[in-house]
Amino acid sequence: MSSTEDLNEELLSLYRRTGEATNYWPNYFLRSVRAEGGLAFAKKLLAPGQVSSGFDSLIEVRRADLSVESIALEPRFSHLFTEEELQVARDRLAPLPAEAFPEKTNIATQAEDVDENTQFKEGSVRRITINAYERDPKAREACIRHHGTTCNVCKMDFEERYGSIGRDFIHVHHKRPLSNLRENYKVDPKKDLVPVCPNCHAMLHRRSPPYDVEQLRAILKHA
User: pLDDT of 83-138, one tens digit each?
Assistant: First the structure.
């Protein structure tokens, strides 16, 4: 289970994640967490009638998952709150439409009763049309020069694990999905890109919009 310090770190990182995801920067929230501590301020917001001023903004941009209410209800943090506080969080989130939350994409194979002797045909060719979003290889190179080639989530270093064949191998993750960027948006390799291993990259994209790096790191820590 996560500690008070873990919650404080989560809420401090929430300021940046919220700003990057929504362009709404909750400065009052950041100052309050720093001054009062994450748990104390979260408990204040979960008192009846004390909903955060940014709550509606998060709903409008389909990121209710970034709300204090949603974080308090996460299994890793819920033990830090009273049942009354958790019920306030449930009551605020329950009436929200599904559109207020990130769309969860289940890419796991659904269990079905399949005869183990059944044969399947694969390899047929079909034509599909997709939107292709241009990636600048120079941005990737600049990201790696700044951040290195160690996974920013699980700290995997491929050269340490696999020797010379793993040297310089890493994926680069766009914190803000390319499909959400304006056509002429200038990517900042230091702020917008982060190196991650293929496994963590896949986990970040288990939903749309993707998980934040900090969220996945915390999930891995307490798995």
Answer: 999 999 999 999 998 888 886 544 443 444 455 566 666 666 655 444 444 456 88
- The number of domains in the chain is 2
Which is it for the CA torsion 137, 142, 145, 148, positive or negative?
negative
Residue 114 lies in a domain: no
Regarding pTM above 0.90, the answer is no
Among 80, 102, 124, give the residue marking a domain's end: 102
Residue 26's domain spans which residues? 4-102
Q: Is residue 151 part of a domain?
A: yes
DSSP letters of the chain? Answer: ---HHHHHHHHHHHHHHHHHHHS---HHHHHHHHHH-HHHHHHHHTSTT---TTHHHHHHTT-GGGSHHHHHTSTTTGGGS-HHHHHHHHHHHTTS-GGGSPEE---SPPP----TT-------------------HHHHHHHHHHH-SS-TTT---HHHHHGGGGTT--EEEESS-GGGS-TT----TTTTEEEE-HHHHHHHTSEESPPPHHHHHHHHHT-
Whether residues 98 and 141 share a domain: the answer is no
The answer to the question of residue 11 being in a domain is: yes
